[in-house]
Amino acid sequence: MIKRSLQQVAEMVSAKNDITPFAETLITGVSIDSRKIGAGNLFVPFKGEHSDGHKYVEDSIRKGASAALWQKDVPNPPTDLPVLIVEDCLVALQELARKYRKELPIKVVGITGSNGKTTTKDMTTGLLATQYKVQKTEGNYNNHIGLPLTVLGLDEDTEIAVLEMGMSGRGEIEFLTKLACPDAVVITNIGESHLLDLGSREGIAEAKLEILQGLQVGGIAVLHGDEPLLMERIQEYKGNVQVQTFGRSEENDFYPTEIIQMEQGNRFKMNASNQWFELPVLGSHNILNALASMLIARHFSIPFEKMNEGLKEIKLTNMRMELVEGKHGEKIINDAYNASPTSMMAAIDLVSNLQGYDRKILVLGDMLELGPEEEQYHLQIGEGLNKDQIDFLFTYGALGGQIAKGASHKLGKERVFVFSDKTELVQELMRYVNEHTLVLVKASRGMKLEEIVTALQAK
Q1: What CA–CA distance (Å, rounded) separates 169 from 166?
Q2: Which domain, by its residues, includes 367?
Q3: Which of 30, 52, 381, 401 has the fewest CB atoms within 10 Å, i.e. the most exposed one?
Q4: Last residue of a domain, one of 262, 291, 312
């Protein structure tokens, strides 16, 4: 993490006040939460509509913070404490991260996409870690606050940072990539998430391609080669960017040639190697995420043998194709972190094709941020179910009801259950599960369907 004198930090954030008495104070790390202050931290208070972090500045220093920022328009800054007065605390945090990044002798991999960016981040980190010291974005620290905090948490001897970049609208990825200055970037795919803000898949593609605007000279861009919206628009960058592609078609640089789907993951071969790769992650779509990660690993000179070692040890962030067991012995695929039509269809396809279960149950909730066509997207999910592969459907939420409406024609109304209360859903679901049952739980993050998984596991 960042370790600088307060004088150095003052220069990096363009502080407005004289901090000479505290100039040699050592800053170690940054925190925006006064409840989680670490020794030596720089505390960054934010001024919001309902609360103001400035009232916790003195308490944070008392708890061990070495210093704090103070926004210029907030009255009565303490004069006896190591406080840096700045125009805007958020801008100062971002500028501190930007300048710290430029001082680090580090390579950066930036990852974005509508689906699979966190999984690809985890896989890329695992592969690179077989040969380098690597740090990655933790949790969902992938926005205009989280990414600067991630950068400021990088150790000076870290060799590669793998940074996830999220967005909700235009210009956000551009801001993040210009702060991080990546040497390699990945765009996992273009889905339907953020249609509400961007209006079309074309708009989403253009927003994701903003990641190229911060790419360093000589950098590599790894793209989903089966996505026409990406491949059409990348043409304008040809000559300035080295492009590598992954996908299912043979036109890509990396593509799978054989796939064996297993209960705990996948085995696969790909075009550039004769060996079998072990991927302990469910879903054949995750093989594509692995191929994207492997292209990055190859760029950093990691041989296929080491990549295989890295893939075998992959640990994904929770609630992403996480296979757990319920209290009645049922197997539960916890994929409750997020959902879009593309990722939901991929998860349903996985459940449909997994063997060894007498009963398969889907627990699906609302997919959010899909814009004016949201009801139609949900209806289509239900209409696409196969009555010979899925036994029961349980839905939660108003839009989930549209999935049920579409499915009732395919599965029959007696196999479809609609709920607006999670407790009632779990009570009914319990009647249908045993040790021979597979349950998929999936919805957008805002629906918090992991609560259903927790209830199924509760002893």
Answers
A1: 10
A2: 322-457
A3: 52
A4: 312
